[in-house]
Amino acid sequence: MTLRNRDIATLFKRLADLLEIEGENPFRIQAYRNAAETIEGLAAPVTELVAAETDLTQYSHIGKDIAEKIEGVVATGRLAALDEVAQRVPPELADLMGVKGLGPKGVKALHDHFHIRSVDELEQLAREGRVRELSGFGAKKEAALLEGIHELHARQYQRTPLAEAEAQAEPLRAWLAAVDGVECIEIAGSYRRRRETVGDIDIVVACADGAAVMERLVRYDGIERVASRGTTRSSVILADGLQVDVRAVPTESFGAALMYFTGSKQHNVALRQRAIQRDLKLNEYGLFQGDDAVAGADEPGIYRQLGLVWIPPELRGDRGEVEAAERDHLPALIEADAIRGDLHAHTTWSDGRDTLEDMARGARARGYEYLAITDHGPRVRIANGLSPERLQTQAEAIAELDASLDGITLLKGCEVDILADGTLDLPDEVLATLDIVVCSIHYNLRQSRQEQTDRVLRAMENPYFMIWGHPTAREVNRREPIDIDLERCLEEAAEHGIAIEVSAQPKRLDLNDAGARLAREKGCRLVINTDAHSVGNLDLVRHGVDQARRAWAEAEDIINTRGLVELRKALRTPPGG
DNA sequence: GCCGTTTTCGGCCCGACTGTTTTCAGTCG
């Protein structure tokens, strides 16, 4: 199995956890955690960067020492420093830190006194009521730990997909907005940064009377329990286990609080350091010079005082956005209303729920100029994939409908399968009759990296390969991406003028933000498609726009922001086409 | 261990809440 960036990051996080339990210098620990964040956020595989002898210290939070440690990991598969610490501190203790309410000091105390090593042992100890024997631990703490263990098991470390989080959070936002005196209310956190999944929900409320907000919060119907409650800050757990933190601030602090709770943590740290350099102090109440607030009511004012233009939340990840904002070189991010058509949609001809006509009318009702009908090719039998004969019949139906419908153009297309050997599941003479050919992988997901890469590169040699559909076949929280040399494939795609799909399906979001950013850097055009299997699915496009924005994409990078004539020019041109 | 618009040493984000403490440490975000 290839060493993924996430695996390498995990080693450094674990090293940080164990050192923290040992009581090491907290800044050294933070340095390892910062480096882990950087590694996770890199678009290119670290293994390949090392193979190409890239200077890793060019990346933030990676210095000489950590660069060498990373090279060691790539060479040996092990982090020597971690192995060394593991001789003194049982590595399983890091898992105990996953229990809410238990930090490094608590883990060390429990281990020193009871010699426990696992969450299960802690659970047994707590059930027997023995944790309270330890000074610093009481009955309430013991109960809180049992609760924390329960939650750990229940949620299995899973983050909530953004679309699900929306369904939970928006009604609660509306519930709180009804409190008298609420001036502004926003959902912050990774939700506002539009990450594909969220760990919890952060709601920031501008209100003179915070107590009234908290009073209404705890009366919300969907609450499982109240984890903590104050007059300015409270936490509740919703019925499905999602945690919601609510923070009430005065109106003059709303921008600062919104910024603070939007994060990312790394972005906040960068801004606070910037404030310190200017003899200012930034906290969730405002930007202060001594005791005087110089900004705080709104975000643009704070950024301005720091010498920056306002940074859209999707860019706040300490990935170069502060430097870009300083030079006023931020991208003009794509907006949802810039999308003028969908190039990947299914109908009842294969596994869609709605008819060809319903889909066409639905797209027109959304204001689209065009819609590509791309039912499955024959390989996907379970989805009633189309044979060349049925595809021909469908083409006639599309042409007939297109002629009878004003205000939208229907494009004849197909979602062709990239077979295990890199051939496509329809012959070239059939593909030659189509306007749009989306090529996707649905089967043989477990091929080796070499096989998978060769497979896609071979497929791309086919002149009718126009769009690479959901390129890595990943599914959020459910299926890892296929093992493939993405960078190599994107270079090939750029060369042939193949557009890369950013699937807006919440379960796919494929390519993801880092992949889409890499695609742009390699010179590829992107296309935001819903892969709609119903009329309602067409509305999912905004989730794809979110991903593209996180990839720093502008409207110009996305081919389906163009009118039909320009779109055709932007697509790969097959021979004679 | 990283980093640099008071740079190669000396900082490194900071406030709220909880439980346990009898004045604050630990944890969280």
Superfamily at the CATH H level of the largest domain?
Metal-dependent hydrolases
Compute the CA-based radius of gyration: 26 Å
Poorly predicted runs are: none
User: How many runs of DSSP E, i.e. beta strands?
Assistant: 17
Structural class: alpha/beta
Task: State the end-to-end distance.
Answer: 42 Å
Q: Which percent range describes the beta-strand content?
A: 5-15%
CATH class of the largest domain: Alpha Beta
Largest sheet: number of strands, sense, barrel closure: 7 strands, parallel
Structural overview:
It is a single chain. The protein is α/β, with parallel strands linked by helices. It folds into 4 domains: 77 residues, DNA polymerase, domain 1 (Orthogonal Bundle), CATH 1.10.150.110; 68 residues, Orthogonal Bundle (DNA polymerase, domain 1); 166 residues, Beta Polymerase, domain 2 (2-Layer Sandwich), CATH 3.30.460; 235 residues, TIM Barrel. The chain is built from 24 helices and 17 strands. It has a 7-stranded parallel beta sheet. A 5-stranded mixed beta sheet has the order 2-4-7-6-5, with helices on both faces. Helix 1 packs antiparallel against helix 2. The mean pLDDT is 91. It binds one DNA strand of 29 nucleotides through helix 2, helix 4, helix 7, helix 9 and strand 6.
Outline the fold blueprint.
Elements: H1 5-22, H2 26-41, H3 46-51, H4 64-76, H5 80-86, H6 93-96, H7 104-114, H8 119-127, H9 139-155, E1 160-161, H10 162-177, E2 182-187, H11 189-192, E3 197-198, E4 201-207, H12 210-217, E5 223-229, E6 233-238, E7 243-249, H13 254-262, H14 265-277, E8 281-283, E9 286-289, E10 292-295, H15 299-305, H16 321-326, E11 341-345, H17 356-365, E12 370-373, H18 388-404, E13 409-417, H19 428-431, E14 436-440, H20 449-461, E15 467-468, H21 486-496, E16 499-503, H22 513-521, E17 526-529, H23 541-550, H24 564-570
Helix pairs in contact: 1-2, 1-5, 1-7, 8-9, 13-15, 20-21, 22-23
The chain binds one DNA strand of 29 nucleotides through helix 2, helix 4, helix 7, helix 9 and strand 6.
